[in-house]
Amino acid sequence: MFKRLFVAVFLLLIAFEVSPAANAVTATASHPHATRVLADCVHARYKPKTIVVACGDGNTVVKDFNYRSWTRDRATGTATLWFNRCEPDCARGQWGHVRMVFRLDHPVRVGTQLRFSRLVTAYPHRTGSHRVQIYQLETHRL
Description:
Number of strands: 8
């Protein structure tokens, strides 16, 4: 049941991947114009292994990426979302994690680079439904 729900959510998330053929060129590590993402709140990376989502406090991090695609306009795949439960407060909170599907999109120009500015995640929720979250990502160094 869990696996079916996960697959259904993943298919929903990637269903929005339709893009013009001109933008469907897959970037490579050697491609100097590949869209990047601000991975650690300082360095823009192509296909990073980790993205710090909450640059202010570090309480939301995405790790263990398995990229399905990476184009100029979007990147998709699976990863693990780590989050601080902040109970009783964030300083003493316990960390939780969930495997999820993701989409990076909304590239913006920063100098000579394109950088993804949004992360969309979807994962199964304990209620039996799924949860979709949208994060606005930093695009400039802090």
